[in-house]
């Protein structure tokens, strides 16, 4: 008898009907002879609605209280799901993150899991229960406060529990049939990927693909937990994310040269204008940013104009950190010694990801050709061993993604990219 962890996202449990549908699926897995642990997200857009509500009573809600509020969303869905399962004649018990033994650090709103002690889950399973765990939350080790893992954190809860319980697989149920070669909301001809390596999936996730969060994939890779991403609305096989290619029939699925195209419109660009071209300048700019606890993404520095000896440095960062970064730089303007700052939040990033890039020299050229054929201007470029990313105007992103997708032969013949639910909010 195996142990499976299943995670259902908000769009899968958006209403009472959804909860009943999911309950049936869970019972199926149990009837197939598995021990089943379920991680559930808040219903539909509950989390967003709770955040809106918090902002109506306070422009900057206290982190501790916001976590207390948001975790209520998952408590609602876990209890309802347990009730629905019992109604089908099976034993179920719901648990908060804290009760399930999800121990985190004490950084509110983006806590990290530091340990999982699932004793109560084990006991519940041993007593024949299906265990339902509230996603995206834990309890801090030192203060014993309730914490959340950051938006979309239920996937990480699921993988962490799968690792702690030594599960065979972590199934992530969502509103699409798996991981696609591009966002199916943008590319109708996106193709479902049968298998993808942890490495390529990590790059896609950090390049803006929202189907799985980076932290969740990182966790899965560290503990070598295979993830099966699939739809709760269809019975189709989804996408396997694991270290080794899966078997299909009697042959292994081959590693694709290009896994997919990701895009991200959540970043902004800051240009520091008129920086003296001498050692230590970049260091003091990025020290300032780091001290403000802001993560940056791409960086470019131009050569200085010979006449002035001044240069510009641009970098990208999450839009949500824009204000903080500008304030921090302004405060240190004298120390750093720049002329002015430019802030641009109308940018988008397009990334091509695939391990095959390492050994296929034409990929970069083909990527740029596809963009130029689509009339898309490139503003910044960055690369890793298995990824090329460019920054363009935000408005160009959908067109650019489709052009690159087609150019790399990723388009499917059928319109298989179905989006079953969710408001995409
Ligand atoms: N409910 C949380 C959110 O919407 C966590 C999750 O869905 O994974 O971000
Ligand atoms: Mg959600």
Automatic annotation (TrEMBL):
Source superkingdom: Bacteria
BP-aspect Gene Ontology terms: diaminopimelate biosynthetic process; homoserine biosynthetic process; lysine biosynthetic process via diaminopimelate
Residue ranges occupied by any ACT domain in the UniProt entry: 270-346, 352-425
Record's catalysed reaction(s): L-aspartate + ATP = 4-phospho-L-aspartate + ADP
Keyword field contains Transferase: yes
CDD domains (alphabetical): AAK_AKii-LysC-BS, ACT_AK-LysC-DapG-like_2, ACT_AKii-LysC-BS-like_1
Keyword Kinase: yes
GO MF, one example: aspartate kinase activity
Residues that hold ATP according to the record: 7-10, 174-175, 185, 210-211
UniProt EC number: 2.7.2.4
Binding site for substrate: 47, 74
GO cellular component assignments: cytosol
Coiled-coil annotated spans: none
Pathway: Amino-acid biosynthesis; L-threonine biosynthesis; L-threonine from L-aspartate: step 1/5; Amino-acid biosynthesis; L-methionine biosynthesis via de novo pathway; L-homoserine from L-aspartate: step 1/3; Amino-acid biosynthesis; L-lysine biosynthesis via DAP pathway; (S)-tetrahydrodipicolinate from L-aspartate: step 1/4
Keywords attached to this entry: Amino-acid biosynthesis, ATP-binding, Diaminopimelate biosynthesis, Kinase, Lysine biosynthesis, Nucleotide-binding, Transferase
Membership in a protein family: Belongs to the aspartokinase family.
Function: Catalyzes the phosphorylation of the beta-carboxyl group of aspartic acid with ATP to yield 4-phospho-L-aspartate, which is involved in the branched biosynthetic pathway leading to the biosynthesis of amino acids lysine, threonine, isoleucine and methionine.
Protein name: Aspartokinase
